[in-house]
Amino acid sequence: MTHPRIRSPRPGPLPGHVYLVGAGPGDPELLTLRGARLVEGADVVVYDNLVSPAIVELAPARAERIYVGKKASDHTLPQEDINRLLVKLAGEGRRVVRLKGGDPFIFGRGGEEMEALVAAGITVEVVPGVTAAAGIAAYAGIPLTHRDHAQSVVFTTGFLKDGLLDLDWDMLARRGQTLVIYMGISRLAEICDQLVAHGLPPTTPAGVIERGTTDAQRVVTADLATLAERVAQAGIRPPALTVVGDVVGLYPRLAWFAPATRDDAPHPPHAGCTVVHAGEAKGAQS
After folding, report:
1. CATH classification of 17-130, choosing from 3.40.640.10, 3.40.1010.10, 3.40.50.2020, 3.40.50.150?
2. Average pLDDT over the chain, rounded to whole?
3. Annotated catalytic residue within 27, 48, 103, 223
């Protein structure tokens, strides 16, 4: 990937540095120009589970590729070991690009990695990426803010470090805002119950987007009272993002993204459940 019309005064990757690069939510074309330039000049690329293979392949043939992906209860390397690995690689004078799904500083542990690098005397550059909330909601046709429906948006996580789901439910369950929940599929029923218990009507629109921005994107919409059941019926699995609020009611009218049709698309739609398989989003707009 080259960008002959782009002229940047900033240098490419330098030896002995680490670049925390947000790779975006899945679609490789959402990678920033700065991120692409750094990957193309890297000596080593350290990448996560949700980074598109097409982005990793931008690295030169000589570059080492190290996978350190995390899934629920399945960590290739604990976070502390990843921190030590980055320090070691940079300490060897290598140009290190740390690719992280979405944005490094939004539920990406980029802050933890940067703390470890700075403490070790390693210089760091952070390259923001399109975070999952913005990218995936956009590809699902769900605006996170809308003058008629939501005047604020809140990001939270359904998977805390200690495993507890101890969130500020009163703050999250406010009307007139959009709530975006990362990593919440395994606790979805509890999340929906808590939001209703703390004041949101059971009829509040809500949706889950699986593998958003990719050709495997699927969307399930329902309300808080039925969302968890509908998601289970549809067989939705991580990675998936949950969006709660009146803006979800704009789907499927605003759905625009038409992934490539897959012959192997599993899990047919169920009655009363809006499920968009890959290749169906275009038809949902009519």
Report:
1. 3.40.1010.10
2. 88
3. 48
Q: Global pTM?
A: 0.85
**Dist CA 82 CA 173 (whole Å):** 35
User: Helices (H), strands (E): how many in the chain?
Assistant: 9, 13
Answer yes or no: 43 catalytic.
no
What letter does residue 140 receive in the DSSP assignment? Answer: T
What are the b/e assignments for 65-104, b being 16+ CB within 10 Å? ebebebeeeeeebeeeebbebbbebbeeebbbbbbbbbbb
pLDDT band of residue 271 (cuts 50, 70, 90) is very low
Known active-site residue 166: no
The catalytic residue among 70, 193, 215, 246 is: 70
For residues 125-154, average pLDDT: 97
Instruction: Compute the distance between CA of residue 223 and CA of residue 206 in angstroms, rounded to an integer.
Output: 5
Question: What's residue 11's pLDDT?
Answer: 82
CATH placement of domain 133-284: 3.30.950.10
Q: Tell me if residue 126 falls in helix, strand or coil.
A: strand
Q: How many CB atoms lie within 10 A of CB 171?
A: 12
Which amino acid is present at 239? P
Strand ranges across the sheet with 44-47: 64-67, 44-47, 95-100, 17-22, 123-127
Highest mean pLDDT among 183-187, 246-250, 262-266 belongs to: 246-250
